[in-house]
Design brief:
mainly alpha, flat, 71% helix, 0% strand, 2 domains
Length: 140
């Protein structure tokens, strides 16, 4: 862990420089993997890169907004991990999974047509996941 953001230990990055390098990797890999996926899709016909720009502006803005939210959350998690410690930072970071599951189950109703008893299993899963995260956080 970096204790001094201004002068890190030799061979270590500050959280800020790590985020810059990580962001560059995301941009580069996005162009690479998106291009491959567009040329060789798992299903459907291949599309050209120009087809990407035929989408609605609203859809692109939603994607950019989602990426910005994720980026801010990851940045804050990395910056805080130096003070909070890895266990607490990990536990809080995994809270995003809980939020995503709650949205999928209760807001978007992804399991509305699932067999009877599925909702109970999903509720138990959420409770156990949150309990596991709590145990990780208090293990500090």
């Amino acid at each position: 862990m970096v204790s001094n953001f201004n002068i890190p230990e030799a061979g270590k990055l500050t959280p800020y420089s790590a985020l810059v390098i990580f962001s560059m990797g995301v941009v580069i890999s996005s162009f690479l993997f998106n291009s491959i996926q567009m040329k060789r899709p798992f299903m459907g016909t291949p599309v050209s890169f120009s087809d990407y720009f035929k989408g609605r502006s609203k859809d692109h803005l939603i994607g950019i907004f989602g990426g910005a939210i994720w980026s801010i959350g990851m940045s804050l998690s990395i910056i805080a991990s130096g003070k909070a410690g890895p266990a607490i930072s990990y536990g809080l970071g995994q809270g995003a999974t809980v939020v995503a599951a709650i949205w999928g189950i209760y807001v978007w109703k992804e399991f509305a047509k699932a067999p009877v008893g599925t909702k109970s299993l999903l509720n138990i899963m959420l409770l156990l996941y949150v309990a596991g995260l709590a145990l990780i956080i208090v293990s500090k």
